[in-house]
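Notes, Module 5: Reading structure tokens.

Key idea: the token line is not a picture. It is a compressed description, and you learn to read it the same way you learned to read a sequence, by spotting repeated patterns. We will look at two proteins. The first is printed below with its tokens.
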Amino acid sequence: MFKLKLLAFRYSQKLKQFNYWLLAQTIFVIFAVLRLLPANAAIRFCAWFARKIGPLTPRHKVAVDNLRHAYPEKSEDDIQAIAREMWDSMARLFAEYIFLDAIFDFDPNATEKGLVEVDGIQIFERLRDEKKPHIFFTAHTGNFELLPICAATYGLDVTALFRPPNNPYIAKRVLKARRTNMGHLVPSKAGAAWSLASILSDGGNVGVLVDQKFHRGVESTFFDRPVKTNPLLAKLARQYDCDVYPARCIRLPGGRYRLELKERMELPRDTQGQVDIAATAQLLNDTVEEWVREYPGQWMWFHKRWG
């Protein structure tokens, strides 16, 4: 009986790996075909396709359920419209991985506007010259992948915490692409916190996505619903007494982007004057919620943030 169970387990693992491989090869073929097209055409096609196919997938049900809880006052037509816009935005992000170099055309010395505009240039320039560590945080909204590229444009070396896809074949390819375009990355796994801590202790900069599910996180709320929030940012800020800056990407009409870097965030403190972990986690959620409410169709609603 034990041998049969062991054989069944090994077979299921091999089948799982084969499914991962098959899905990865399919995606790589799609990438190869998209590369044959001009960037704008490829991105527009992916957005059109996702608007048609996305609502037919199981993840659409997750997105719609999340939207109904977040916006109980909205009509079903409004909810569906936001969900379709989300599929459009996520598909664009998928295609934009291939064309990051073509998309990011921002030149601080240019006299004409390109695809990318930046709000917070003076902050970037000031932080570049500061001899101290900084933490930047953002969320899965717009094309957040453009933010570390923008930082590098101003000479800011930012190491980003990166959660690899579950598919190991896709994860390897994506990690290689992101290292090429975005500099240093730390995969989100055991030991990641120590890696980021080491960077901050050496006076470096780190970037963190703060809207992900974290089973062992701090009790907090997001859109008035209970969630678990990763306390890593708050703990690092408290340990190294470093400034924390919010940054985001907003999709603009005409396939353009606005990257925003705002001034230092005042973190809540406890009675001993140290960064309050729980209150900071809630502040991060409140900030992201404000972003999402402003542009709801640009956030990843199919993510099981509340699950």
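Here is the second protein, with the sequence above and the tokens below, as before.
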Amino acid sequence: MVTIINGIGSSEIVIEHAQTNKVDEAKRWMLGFNYWLDPRSVIKVGYEDTDVADGPDDKRFAVQFSYGF
């Protein structure tokens, strides 16, 4: 499930939730902020928390720049 909340101007808040049980049973939440420089360029900032049932949990903070055409 992905929820995008349009913000002011060219920004948006992104909330994701996912579950998997293929390889390792896990639940993942991600909260992020996207700032669009133009229709093809975005700066993304996000925090991701993955809870793995039979293993160590994973928490990460990421900053990304994406460009496409």
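Summary for the second protein:
- The mean pLDDT is 84.
- The two ends are 26 Å apart (CA to CA).
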